[in-house]
Amino acid sequence: IILEASGNRRLTIALRATMEIPHVYKSYYWHSEQERQRSLLYHRELIEAFRNRDSLWAEATMKSHVYAARDYLLTKLRKDRRERLHPA
């Protein structure tokens, strides 16, 4: 529904590539329970923004969601790398 409403071909291609099963499973597996709950809250907030037809709210929520996920994964990758390079 979101993709159809956007009418944005680039968004459609990017989102479909992102939502492939292996990718979603892998990123879900990497997230802690706290991060999964945080993600769920972002999704709920997006639904509220859509219900209110508030595109600025939806955009801000989606940006926050993407940046938070990015930061979490980068932190995890750095930590995993340090542990591989310097095992305890």
Task: Tell me what the structure shows.
The chain is built from 5 helices and no strands. The radius of gyration is 16 Å and the shape is elongated. With 88 residues, it is mainly α.
Question: Which oligomerization state do the chains in this entry correspond to?
Answer: single chain
Shape annotation: elongated
Spans of at least 5 consecutive residues whose pLDDT stays below 50 are none
Major sheet description: none
Per DSSP, the total helix count is: 5
- What order do the SSEs take from the amino end to the carboxyl end, as H and E? HHHHH
* Residue-averaged pLDDT: 83
The fraction of residues in strands falls at under 5%
Helix fraction, binned, reads over 70%
| Class from secondary-structure proportions | mainly alpha
Terminal CA distance reads: 48 Å
Question: What is the total tally of β strands?
Answer: 0
Radius of gyration: 16 Å
Kindly list the characteristics that best describe this protein:
88 residues; mainly alpha; 5 helices
A few lines on this structure:
By secondary structure, the protein is mainly α.
Secondary structure: elements and pairs:
Blueprint (H helix, E strand, L loop, with lengths): L1 H5 L2 H10 L2 H10 L2 H19 L3 H31 L3
Helix pairs in contact: 4-5
